[in-house]
Amino acid sequence: MDADVAVIGVGAIGSMAMWRLAERGQKVLGFEQFGIGHDRSAVGGGSRIFRTAYKEGFEYVPLNQKSLDLWRELEEKSSNDLLTLNGCLTIGNAQLDSIKNVKKSIDDFNLEHEILDRDQAKKYYPQHTLLEDEIMILDKNGGFLRPERSIISAVKVAVSYGAEAYSYTKVLDVIPDDKGVTIITNEKSYRVKKAVITAGPWTDTLIKSYKKQLINKRFIMTWFSPLQDISLFEPDKFPSFSRNTKGHTISGAPIIDGNMVRISNNTKLYEMKDSEEFDKNVRIDELNSVINSVKSYFPDLNPFPVRSDAFMDNFSPDKNPIVGSVPGMENTISLCGFSGHGFKYSPIMGNIAADFVEKEGSDDLIDALSSMRLSD
Predict the structure, then answer these.
(1) Per-residue pLDDT tens over the stretch 110-121
(2) What is the residue extent of each domain of the chain?
(3) Which top CATH class is 60-144+215-313?
């Protein structure tokens, strides 16, 4: 055996799996087809939202709470600043499912928060223009993460525990048997006891049975310049936010280490047949929706993006991740299908991956995420 575990795909989830496995004393090999902290998949753009009150479902709250502790642990061990808790706003009509889910999260877990009506929102957060029937919910334990630095930090800590990370090394095949797993790369072959596949949009090239379960989608992120007062959009005045307005899904983060505000409208995602057709170029017509959103709801921003970039992520049919042992592939675990909302709780996913390697299950895994639901 070359190692105890191979982690295939060292992005958001894979980097955390490497860290948690190596810290437990496992000998880990990490394989990444691009560079560590690259921008070719779901991670990039300098910021990701962190929130504990969760619009996708209250059952995620414990995962986010445990991840908060792990983010702080990773910061300490890497000596890097990764998570800023400046609050996170959820904005929309009180009757929307997303708002109801956030309220249920707050009620069920007694989360620290404030609910602001339109007049209060205008007073405290004038950067946003709300419709008459909209409210704001401030999650006081929300904020933003630095994704590239987070991945680099997790790998750095994993390597300090003895892990090995191979960048620009593409895994061509994963061949499991009852005694272990053979990993074939563009460089050479490796033999390990178990494999953890965290390959994002490339998952279905390694797990053929997931091809019908997973859809790759391309999304656009955009950045805008304040018209005058940059300080209005700095972290102490402008929390991260997620907004559902008139059928549009808008999200953003404050100015971080520069002078640009990230505002994205990902109401329409672009489905791809194959991850290899991914195009980083952003067409002008793809910007119309976010330009109109900024014109309508952010009066203090120049409505034309000063930067735009394309990324892609891996979606499951129910938009919940698929986590656990891979049916029909011995000694193989996969974490995939995070559907655009996995980065914030990636540390606990790394922990869950380590649990599956060591004991073929995890007390932290909720039923809604289990890979076993695919066989129901």
Answers:
(1) 999 999 999 999
(2) 3-43+148-212+318-375, 60-144+215-313
(3) alpha beta
